[in-house]
Amino acid sequence: MKIQLNEQLSISKLVIGCMRMNDWNLSAEQVVEFIEWCIERGITTFDHADIYGGDHRNEGLFGEALQLKPSLREQIEIVTKCAISVPNARNPHIKTRYFNTDKEYILTQVNDSLDKLQCGYIDILLIHMFDLLIDPRELNETLLQLQSEGKVKYFGLSNHSPLEFDTLQKYSDVPFVTNQFMLHPLGIQNYQNGAMTHCLKEGISPMIWSPLAGGRIFKPTNAFEEKMHNVLETIRQELGLEHLDEVVYKWIFKHSSNPVIVLGTGNKERIERAIRSAEGPELTKEQWYKVLVEAGYTLW
């Protein structure tokens, strides 16, 4: 269940996405139990962002659990993100949503994340979105400072195109260990724009979020989604799988870049199905391409 991102760093093939943790209605004690349950099943990586939660509180919910049982910290990998400025009660001075990669802003956000998570370091910090006004030299200085201070071990990007990734990597003295972006059978833009192939070229494993298209895989809302649902259901029956989401996970896992899937759920039954999907029968190449073409990919 482990994926090696570099010689020193490995993460689990399945990652628990904590964006909706505030909706799980778990006490700190229950979060501890959930983390332990995941670790027992080989899932050791948890994905956060400074803005997750209605009032940016999800890192804090996780931190409360770590405070109850500090020994958990060395058993897990924490991923978090920054660079999105959001107008809300927490930030009354912000009037417009925008992206910010200024040095002072990133340093402030990382320190805030560490305070909320109640831990001394972050395993992987991702730049959440591409800032069109970014100064890549300044970003490099920022990342080097965070690394030298021991606050962040490794860095990556999130929702960056191949060109954006290469541009920032050109100026960076630290190698980016991953690119996290959306991919599912209803949204294949990161195949169409070359992001998946770029990960293969760079030798990095992409982290895939929203693999089930926010549930639309199960409950189609239009003719396109209904047709895809039927294609996936046919493959499910051909492979003898129990549930449709297992087909989707297997479709994502089949790519040679060795993708990691971010599960945006705290539902243990759904997590168990995702674990099963990493084993057993694989999609044939023909089945895999059937999904891709139905998703709108033009082969020639």
From TrEMBL:
| Any one GO CC term of the record | cytosol
* Residue ranges of every copy of the NADP-dependent oxidoreductase domain listed in the record: 13-289
Query: What InterPro entries does this protein map onto?
Result: AKR_Detox_Biosynth, NAD(P)_OxRdtase_dom_sf, NADP_OxRdtase_dom
Pfam annotation, one family: Aldo_ket_red
Q: Which Gene3D superfamilies match?
A: NADP-dependent oxidoreductase domain
Name this polypeptide is given:
Aryl-alcohol dehydrogenase
